[in-house]
Amino acid sequence: MTKQQRLEIDWTSADVQDGGDVTIELTGGISKAWRGRFEAVLGLLGAANGSWGAVKLTKKTISVQALQPQAEEDLRHFLESVVVQVNSELPEEQGDEGPEQKLDRKAILDAEMTATLRSFAGPRS
After folding, report:
1. Within 10 A of 83 (CB to CB), how many other CB atoms are there?
2. Residue 92 near residue 17 (C-beta atoms within 8 A)
3. Which residue in 85, 96, 102, 106 is a FRET match for 3, CA 20 to 30 A apart?
4. What are the tens digits of pLDDT across the range 55-104?
């Protein structure tokens, strides 16, 4: 399996049009393996719910249909969880840091919580 860069959601790129259709860019390049895992995790979690419609990954963008008002925080948590899960399942590119270490469940949960907390950061000046 090819090593790759960890992707993150670029919340500064979020855009809502046409009464709730959302587009949000991802940082970095999306590999075929990453795309496949993203779609698989979405399938397991059931991407659409009562607060938004279909979620799709196109090129470097996540698209969400029909986001309902007041559901932004739930969508953020959902998308961050999907991205963290996909990143945790695929090997990361490494420089001179040494051999890969397997992530255990606790480390995955820590990474999910870290991603959620970091997403609260406002734009940097």
Report:
1. 21
2. no
3. 106
4. 999 889 999 999 999 999 999 999 999 999 999 888 765 443 444 444 45
SS3 content of the chain, % helix, strand, coil (to 5): 40, 20, 40
C-alpha to C-alpha distance for 81 and 97, rounded to whole angstroms: 26
Task: Give the C-alpha distances (Å, rounded to integers) separating 30 from 27, 45, 79.
Answer: 9, 21, 16
CB 10 within 8 A of CB 26: yes
- Written as one string, the DSSP assignment of 60-106 is TEEEE--PPTT-HHHHHHHHHHHHHHHHHHSPBP-SSS-S-----HH
